[in-house]
Predict the structure.
Amino acid sequence: MHWLLMKDGNMRDRRLDVAVVSEIPASYLTDGYAVIPSLFDPIEISRIAREIDRLFEDYARLPAGHTYDLDSRPGDGSPGRIPALRGVLTLRPELRAARGLARAVTLAENLIGPEAEVLWDSAVYKPSGSSSETPWHQDEAVYGLSKIRKPRSIVYFWVALDAVGESSGCIRFVPGSHLGPLLPHAWRNGDTSSSLVVSGPIEGPAMVSVPLGPGDATVHHSRTLHGSGPNASGSCRKGWVLGVGRPAAPRWLRRLKRGLLGAAGRSGGR
Ligand SMILES: O=C(O)CCC(=O)C(=O)O
């Protein structure tokens, strides 16, 4: 029996050390992910989507360190196929006031404990007709493959900026994979600013695709295997990924570091 009923009426899972409150489906414990409908309200998400669209229109002129590609083709001169933009909140700090972000932090705190904040964010656009999949990976693997310090704890939200379905490349998960080990990973195409990709075959229950409406989100555990399919639809698939957690280093130290390194000082990912 892994579950404990707490005095406050919430359930706590001993294996994951997470509390599950009414706003997060209990399936998070067994599946390693959950759907959060309307994390952002329609007006707020369309405003955020417009701002991020504008950043993508200016993609080539953004400061170094903000742009990367989950499926770059190093060396062949062609543009990558899943352009991504890290640090939207650094480039557009006014978006930090979004009510949906406050809600994400509260939900994350219910899962991982107090003092959570948005540690990292990235918009991932998959252009119409892109045959490129985002490969299966566990976000936790980034800490072993890069010099990024592992936060004390973190969960990830995938926020739909627009409606996304199976044919347009919605996020998909391997339920229960968060209960298994961290698998060996590599960088896609050997490119350290590309996507993580799990080495070897995936074992486990069938994957689940999660269609979402604008402003809906999923939240997943850092060890949950996830990815997304090609975009066969006629429009760009737009997602915004938020890493919300309890930082490894105190806030003052990170501010100092960011000041010294510049806006994109927190390079790398996840
Ligand atoms: O948007 C996608 O295709 C997946 C993004 C993702 O999994 C990630 O950035 O870790």
